[in-house]
Amino acid sequence: MSDDISKRCCLANESEPTVTRSTVPMWIIVVTLVLLFFGGLYFDSHGDWGNQKLYKPFTSAEQLETFQPKSGAAAVMAQGRASYETVCGICHGSDGMGKPGQAPALAGSEWVTTKGVNRLAHIPLAGISGPLQVKGQNWNLAMAAMGAALPDENLAAALTYIRSSWGNQAGEVTADEVRNIRAAIGNSPPMLSREQLLALPE
Amino acid sequence: MKNGIAIVFAAVVALGASWCGLVLAPTLQLGGAKLTTVLNSPDTYPLQRTGEASLGLQIYRANGCAACHTEQVRQDGIQAELMLTALGNYQPEDFKAFTESLFVQQALEPVTNALAINLKGWNGSLPFVFLTTSDKEIADKINQSINVPGVKSELRIVATGADLARGWGPRRSVAADYLYDQPVQLGRLRAGPDLANIGVRQPDANWQLLHLYAPKAVVPNSTMPSFKYLFAVRKIGAALAPEALKLNAEFAPAAGYEVVPTAAAKELVAYLLSLRANVPLYEAPFTPVTTKP
Question: Is any Cβ of chain A less than 8 angstroms from the Cβ of B72?
């Protein structure tokens, strides 16, 4: 058997095949370099050099940045929610239901769903202390000016968020409104009582 | 072998280069992927799967679902849409005249030409998509210039592409979507629809169970094979089990028998329902349609 095969295939070509060296044709080198060059250009202009956050259809970090939604009602609500949850949510709860013995509810609160925003905006800017009724419940605690440290835009967004979440349906609060009230009451104003607040226009 | 060393060297270089390209570079780029947050929100993304859903991933894998289904949504482009929502005291005709005078001053010819065409066909109904452009800066500029008292407009970011037009998701898939998948079930063939967002599209667990047991029971012309062996057909005990499938006559078992999902079927469905890649991320921004949470 094996003799057959060796006869058929190998006798005619007894010598060991050898490899000879010859230069690579010039055109292959040129084509490779051209391809590498265009590949490099494409890589440079599309990937931002391995930026983790960059996907098609974006081609640069700057372009991605310009497409971040920064305006519109959705963005305000999102920003408001972020501010609310980092500053106010600790006490009032991320569901706006408040916490027994710690802070009253904002969901359905008559202090939150006022027609105007003047009185409401005074609460986080000046603070509130003493006896207080919220949704028929009596409270007697104090809240420092929790919103005073927030920039106008963020506080306005947070107030807009609490006025239109958890079933609340009241209008938005603009950064200008917050700015004006902040300017009117000055730096570190005294905490307000229920009576002082009720004396303010809504 | 005269050139043994050269051949070994060439083999090492060739394998090394492909290892660098296929293993090292992706690891350097995405190996450090971490939990991210949803755009403009403190919520982290993605959510960790429940134990049941993580087991379901293995069932998905074992049954070769990835042979017919992908879990990757592709996106071709991104657009800014300027939507007019209120006109205040303007009448539509006045508003057209007002914008035309504005755009002449702004010298944004190509865009304003497209805009003029849009405005011509507008009968004054609101909300009205005023402008669609891939140039966000121009959209921003126009948004600002029409920002006069009473007029309200909203700039929306919309991802575009064939997969998105099919309703397979609001944005492309990105690495963060797969953070907890081990192994990732990207798939490469679409005999059936993409499943990256099946938990959003079809959140009803009963539908999913029926579909796995008898695809034709819920999708009449379905060509998906049935996965009957993930279910047990057993004699009805004292009463029908609450989890028994509600099948119509054509697919129901013999009288006195009921079909109940095994643990594997429940895990698989928990996994399918956990497939939700529908929130905006920094790397894949878009404006969600529901404005209020």
Answer: no
Same structural domain for residues B93 and B51?
Answer: no
Residue B16 maps to a domain: no
State the pairing for strand pair A137-143/A128-134: antiparallel
Q: How far apart are CA B122 and CA B102, in angstroms?
A: 18
Between CA B270 and CA B53 the distance in angstroms is: 5
Q: How many CA atoms lie within 13 A of B163 on its CB side?
A: 22
Residues A124, A69 share a domain: yes
CB nearest B287 (choices: A53, A72, A165): A72
The Cα of B190 is separated from the nearest Cα of chain A by a number of Å equal to: 21
Total tally of structural domains belonging to chain A? 2
Q: Is ipTM > 0.85 here? A: no
Is there a domain that residue A151 lies in?
A: yes
Say if residues A162 and A168 touch (Cβ distance below 8 Å): yes
| Helix (H), strand (E) at residue A80 | helix A73-83
Q: What is the pLDDT of residues B111-137, one digit of tens each?
A: 767 777 777 778 777 788 878 888 888
Per-residue pLDDT, B1: 67
Residue with tokens 């949470």: B293
Alpha carbon of A110: minimum distance to chain B alpha carbons (Å): 21
The number of domains in chain B is 2
What percentage of chain B reaches a pLDDT higher than 70? Answer: 95
- Say if residue A40 is in the same domain as residue A114: no
Strands (DSSP E) along chain A, which ranges?
128-134, 137-143
A39-48, A168-177, B89-98: range with highest mean pLDDT? A39-48
Note the residue count of chain B. Answer: 293
User: Is A86 near chain B, with CB under 8 Å?
Assistant: yes
Per residue in B36-75, pLDDT tens? 988 877 788 999 999 999 999 999 999 999 999 999 999 9
